[in-house]
Amino acid sequence: MWSWKLVTSDVELTLLDYLETKGIKLDDLVATALELFVPHPGVETREKATAILTDEFRNAFLDVDVSCLVVMCYEAEDEAKAGRIPNLSKERFSGRPGLVTDELIGMTIANYIAGARGVFEFVRFDQQKPGILSKLGPIVNDAIGGLVAGCSSNMYSAATRHSRTG
Prior knowledge:
Blueprint: E1 7-8, E2 11-12, H1 15-21, H2 26-35, H3 46-61, H4 64-81, H5 90-94, H6 101-114, H7 116-128, H8 140-165
Antiparallel strand pairs: 1-2
Helix pairs in contact: 2-3, 2-8, 3-8, 4-6, 4-8, 6-7, 6-8, 7-8
C-alpha cells in the first residue's frame, strides 16, 4: 500500500513529490535531459536549457494524466517483479524477449507532453539511457524517459518560438 499521503492539508501531491519518494529529484531529471543537449537557436547554452527545462518539468508535474501514467508504470513494475501480471513470468520480465508495453507507454507520455517531436526525442533517450534512466527498472525507465523526452522536446520548441519572436 501507499506509504505517502495523497493530500497534505489542502495541497495536493505533485508528481515531483511522488518521484522524490522514489529517489528522483528535479535536478536528476534536468541533468538527464542535459546529457543529450544539443545547442539550438534560442537555447544556445546549458544555463538557458536548464531554465527552460525546469519550467517544462514543473508544468508536466502538475498534469494529472502524466502523473497517472508515471505512477501506473511504477505499480506495473512492482507487479511484474512479484510475478503478478498475467502471462508475464518473472524470467520474461527480466530478460529477452521482454515487453513492448514499456516503450509504448514511454512514447505515449512523450507524445502527450510534446506530440510527434516528443516521440522522436523519446527514441534518442530510450536508445542511450542517459543519467537516471540507466538506473531505473525496465518499465519505469521508459516512463521517466518519456517524461524527460517530452520536456526536452518542449524546451527546443519553446526556444525556437522565442528566438523567432525576439
